[in-house]
Amino acid sequence: MSSEQSHKKLNYARAGVDIQAGDEAVKRIKALARKTFTPAVLSQIGSFGGFFKPDLTGLDAPVLISSADGVGTKLKLAFMTDRHTTVGEDLVNHCVNDILVHGARGLFFLDYIATGKLHPEVVADLVEGLSRGCSNAGMALLGGETAEMPDFYSPGEYDLAGFIVGLVDQSKVINGSTITEGDVCIGLPSNGLHTNGYTLARKVAFEIAGLKVGERVTELDGTIDEVLMAVHRCYAPLVHDLLGDFDIHGMAHITGGGLPGNLNRILPDNLDADLKKGTWPVLPVFQWLQEAGDLDPDDMYHAFNMGIGYVLVVAEADADRLVDRLNQKGETSYRIGRITSGAGTVRLTD
Question: Which of 16, 151, 192, 222 has the fewest C-beta atoms lying within 10 Å of its C-beta?
């Protein structure tokens, strides 16, 4: 075989997988993940598995709660803007909020990043956000997987998914079973779309309204991409501070499906939630999307959170005291509705 022929031999790099880029990405990931390690972490990034020894002190019947999710088409905005440092935090906060509704604290988090061509700097940006979200929630970024799959993803694109494991004492699990007629629904504000409704929002902003990345919108405080990429709010620090002092009957994280499609998930079969529009301010971004896209007002409440990212359900006797506590902490909250007799549905009225 000639020298010229030998140089043309197929190898992994020519097939599209860059092992050196993968090694560089792992180096960057290790440093970012190590910042989140708690004393319970017994392994380093790069092992075949993550080792975690939880502190079960004071728990009579420890229960593990897990969840998995993605960021959805909000990633398209990251591709459009070449900004990748926030979607990882979006992902962590979404997962933290999901297990929070049951009273759980996150123990550790795993991530999955898949792309056609591995760019270590992009991976580092993603993990920067993951690390920041985990640190803020007091849990470890224990491990994950970075997969380079040529020809599977379009150039410059990737997918991002996360997996959380949390812990709660069985006697303190919150699942909505204690919700009773007359209970009050208290809403905590969102700071934007969070991680849902982006397929519709992008169509309105960039196709119907014809905006470009970096373009400012008069009605909004910032450029269209800055507003749409606002980081999904994490409610864990605030809510965990309440759990020890209040008998919270149920909680809901308002994600895809909006208030009607999430609050109903915790309602007993014989009860409804009657929510009154106008009891909380709808964020300007939702008002702008509705007008710019000529969207059906009712559909808005199913596609978006409309300014409420989390709901607490408590007895009438505890509602004022809970709101006062939130006020003392400088947190805004709204009485948005009440639990009534019914069939497990959420009704929105004007």
Answer: 151
**In angstroms, rounded to a whole number, what is the distance separating the alpha carbons of residues 68 and 79?**
22
Contacts of 194 (CB under 8 A, 6+ apart): 90, 94, 232, 233, 254, 255, 305, 309
Retrieve residue 223's tokens: 């450029």
**One-letter identity of residue 74:** K
On whether the CB atoms of residues 309 and 194 are closer than 8 A, the answer is yes
The C-alpha atoms of residue 334 and residue 327 are separated, in whole angstroms, by 11
Per-residue CA distances from 268 to 254, 257, 337, 340, 348 (Å): 18, 19, 16, 11, 18
Spatial distance between the Cα atoms of 75 and 55, rounded to a whole number of angstroms: 35
Summarised one tens digit per residue, pLDDT across range 168-196 is 999 999 999 999 999 999 999 999 999 99
pLDDT digits (tens, 9 = 90+) for 320-342: 999 999 999 999 999 999 999 99
48-57, 79-88, 93-102, 287-296: least confidently modelled range:
48-57
Residue 323 tokens, joined: 């709101």
Domain containing 227 equals 184-349
Residue 179 belongs to some domain of the structure: no
| pLDDT digits 0-9 by tens, 126-139 | 999 999 999 999 99
CB 275 within 8 A of CB 346: yes
* Parallel, antiparallel or unpaired: strands 248-253 and 308-314: antiparallel
Does residue 159 sit in the same domain as residue 306? no
Report which of 58, 246, 50, 76 is spatially closest to residue 164, judged by C-alpha positions: 50
One-letter amino acid for residue 220 of the chain: L
What is d(CA 174, CA 103) in angstroms, rounded to the nearest whole number? 6
* Amino acid letter, residue 126: L
Residue partners of 121: CB distance under 8 A and separation at least 6: none
For the whole prediction, is pTM greater than 0.90? Answer: yes
Separation between Cα atoms, residue 116 and residue 119, nearest integer Å: 10
Q: Are residues 151 and 251 in the same domain?
A: no
Does 163 share its domain with 197? no
